[in-house]
Amino acid sequence: MLRATAVLPRGNASGAAVADRVLLDAEDRHRRRVVMTGEGGTTFLLDLAEATRLRDGDGLLLEDGSVVLVTARPEPLVEVTARSAADLARLAWHIGNRHTEVQVVGERLRIRRDHVLEDMLRGLGAALAPVDAPFDPESGAYDHAPAHGHAHDDDHHHGHDHSHHHHEHDHGHEHGHSHAHGHPHRHDG
């Protein structure tokens, strides 16, 4: 079976022999190692060093020198608009606060269809329009783990300590949340 071990960013595959194309939604475009079959029947192993977010128009370089083009599959999304840039920024904050992937398209936001989130956004004054379009969410500052969780498909150490050092201190305000990690915190002044 052929292997694809490199990604050619959009526009860098010109001149290469295009063997096939794969039509992938946003989730399927964030992979490290998986068998794929192109629309023309080319079966290959995507075998990258780390999970990589593939973009519409990228090329997957096969061992034989040919390229499989990546095409973003349209998905059921909702476009979010607001009356002002400040309102749109506030809506984006609420979306991000829920750790929801978002794509910024001009003065609109795109998210996957989610009736609970859509109801919340309407309640905050957003105008919503359902669309079927390719979804290319923002990568984020820490785009090394899969976007749909914090799991890793390989074992490695990040070089930082995961222990917790706690001490008594006065925050000067009420927290309004619980600490579910097995020991109490004092919040008295």
From TrEMBL:
User: SMART domains this protein is in?
Assistant: UreE_N
For bias kind Basic residues, which ranges apply? 159-168, 178-189
Record has NAD as a keyword:
no
Q: Which SUPFAM superfamilies match?
A: Urease metallochaperone UreE, C-terminal domain, Urease metallochaperone UreE, N-terminal domain
Is Cytoplasm among this UniProt entry's keywords? Answer: yes
The entry's keywords: Chaperone, Cytoplasm, Nickel
Listed name of the protein: Urease accessory protein UreE
